[in-house]
Design goal:
By secondary structure, this protein is an alpha+beta fold. The protein is built from 17 helices and 23 strands. It is globular and about 70 Å long. About 1% of the residues have low confidence.
């Protein structure tokens, strides 16, 4: 009689052998497919090089191919050519060598659209709205903004010469600026909005974000802060480790913050708080919106999961995918999605299921509906699959079509540039008010400007198509009538939405003279979400009720 263990030894061994052969065969098939497609791709490029009718820029062609291939997976898996390495470093580290100016192409001109206070461009006298016509004597008219930006950046201590055209100044201005190491702030503003209520605007999660938040907390505490509004609206995220450190300022040591899980089980990792909390008890309100993403959602979600504070605002963006950067040949890099985030309650932040379009070979995206229920530490019900849902719905803010049109077509920007050319100074940021008289000047200035609504652009496309198809005779009169009616609506909208447009103009003007910090400090007075948070802090009974389980 065969012993029990020996009886099963041979079938198990045979099963393992067959399994090994199967897995080996699958692996071999996988690498065959990879090699086959690489060979086909190379053959296509060779044939194009040999026979295509025009000369081909293979760098550009391959970049398009790579972009399309990777986008079919998800929008965050991207190929980074060598010239983009500096941009990635700026996003993660928050530092770069340059003059501290952001430029944009507008109507073929390179325009300064933002200055960092205290850096060479600002100290040297450059202004927002200036046109950079030359860099080191080279004309910039035919160059893309990325090229101009690359010339402005460089090693700290080196110099760059700019020729600038400024509104209201007849001759071009020449600036010679010495580059510095530009360090971007994560905390763009902090202060007290009401007695005892502190406010911190956290704009990103690059290196030192947590240190900046702690420094702001220390300053606010010294000034008598007892409650905190942490503003994560519009924050796109950044470094995971910085998000964990920010959480650790408010959550005690040894608690889970986030877990990452992907296809490779061995790479799954759980992150916990490692230090004593700076402040584990003071009431907190976190402001979130649809542009709060990734690291912002981790911070907000963890504070919600531990019932540490109240979230006010709107559903967040829903980016719960982790990216890792891999170095490739020729100093290129691949930023690829490797796992998903899961916060302490067990829920995922991710809103879109990108695996659907891989399986179905379609660009259609599927939203994961929040049908899974999880619970916070106190037992409150929370859902996954739709970003982070606030505890208290905030004010849904949307601009009127007239305001959107004026912003998108650069007319707010252009008018403020003219305003600054005519006014060397304005009063203090918190005291400045864009008056009714000044608004009338703005409306008068608009009279010969084109600020077409979306519907007008659609009408123009319709008319052009009708002309191409010889159908204009019957519809020209109706289209002309419709355009006249829309023009009357626009004039009415300038009156109807005067208050909204004035606030946008006011904020832009303050930013020109007092930069981002001044604009934020002045905006606090009018921000309805901040006011809602302050009102909640005045009703602490309701605040605590929001953190309890609903009966």
């Amino acid at each position: 009689m065969i012993p029990y263990q020996r009886k099963w030894r041979y079938p198990v061994a045979l099963l393992l052998l067959l399994l090994g052969i199967l897995l080996g065969s699958q692996l071999q098939d996988k690498y065959f497919k990879l090699g086959k497609n690489l060979e086909i791709f190379a053959d296509v490029l060779k044939e194009l090089d040999a026979h295509y009718v025009d000369e081909i820029d293979f760098d550009a062609l391959v970049q398009v191919g790579l972009d399309a291939m990777l986008y079919s997976l998800d929008p965050y898996t991207t190929f980074l050519p060598e010239e983009d390495a500096e941009s990635l470093k700026t996003y993660t580290v928050g530092e770069y060598g340059g003059i501290g100016a952001i430029t944009s192409k507008r109507k073929g001109k390179t325009i300064v659209v933002m200055l960092y206070q205290g850096y060479p461009a600002h100290k040297g006298g450059l202004r927002v709205g200036d046109e950079i016509s030359q860099v080191n004597g080279e004309d910039m008219a035919d160059h893309p903004v990325e090229y101009v930006s690359s010339l402005l950046k460089g090693m700290a201590g080196t110099s760059v010469q700019l020729t600038v055209v400024r509104q209201g100044v007849q001759k071009p201005l020449v600036f010679t600026l010495t580059r510095e190491q530009i360090v971007l702030k994560n905390v763009s503003y902090y202060g007290q909005v009401q007695e005892g209520i502190g406010y911190i605007r956290l704009a990103g999660f690059s290196t030192h974000a947590a240190d900046e938040v702690q420094a702001a907390l220390e300053s606010l505490k010294a000034g008598g802060m007892q409650k905190l509004i942490l503003d994560l609206r519009g924050n796109p995220g950044g470094i995971l480790e910085e998000a964990i450190k920010v959480v650790n300022l408010f959550i005690e040591q040894g608690l889970m913050v986030v877990a990452t899980k992907g296809r490779v089980a061995s790479r799954a990792k759980t992150y916990k708080t490692t230090q004593r909390a700076y402040d584990a008890t003071s009431p907190i309100i976190v402001l979130i919106d649809q542009k709060s993403a990734s690291a912002s959602e981790i911070v907000a979600g963890v504070i919600q999961d531990y019932d540490r504070g109240v979230l006010v605002g709107n559903n967040t963006f829903g980016k719960g995918l982790v990216q890792t950067t891999r170095s490739l040949s020729y100093n290129t890099q691949l930023k690829l999605t490797t796992s998903k985030y899961f916060i302490p309650s067990g829920r995922s932040i991710q809103k879109i299921d990108y695996s659907y379009r891989q399986q179905e070979n379609t660009a259609e995206l599927v939203t994961d509906m929040p049908d899974k229920v999880f619970t916070t530490q106190a037992g409150r019900r929370v859902h996954d699959g739709n970003g982070i849902t606030p505890d208290l719905e905030g004010v849904r803010f949307s601009l009127a079509p007239i305001t959107v049109s004026l912003i998108e077509q650069g007319l707010i920007f252009d008018y403020v540039t003219l305003f600054q050319a005519q006014n060397d100074h304005i009063v203090a940021a918190r005291d400045f008010v864009f008056s009714a008289t000044q608004y009338k000047d703005f409306v008068d200035w608009l009279r010969d400007k084109d600020y077409a609504y979306t519907i007008e652009r659609s009408i123009n496309r319709l008319l052009k198509r009708a002309q191409n198809e010889s159908y204009t005779a019957g519809i020209q009169e109706q289209i002309a009538s419709l355009k006249t009616q829309i023009q009357r609506y626009k004039e009415e909208d300038l009156r109807k939405f005067e208050k909204e447009i004035k606030l946008i103009l006011q904020e832009e003007i303050i930013a020109r003279y007092y930069f981002q910090e001044g604009a934020i400090s002045a905006m606090l007075v009018h921000d309805q979400s901040i006011q809602k948070a302050c009102d909640l802090f005045q009703d602490m009974h309701r605040y605590h009720d929001l953190l309890k389980v609903s009966e």
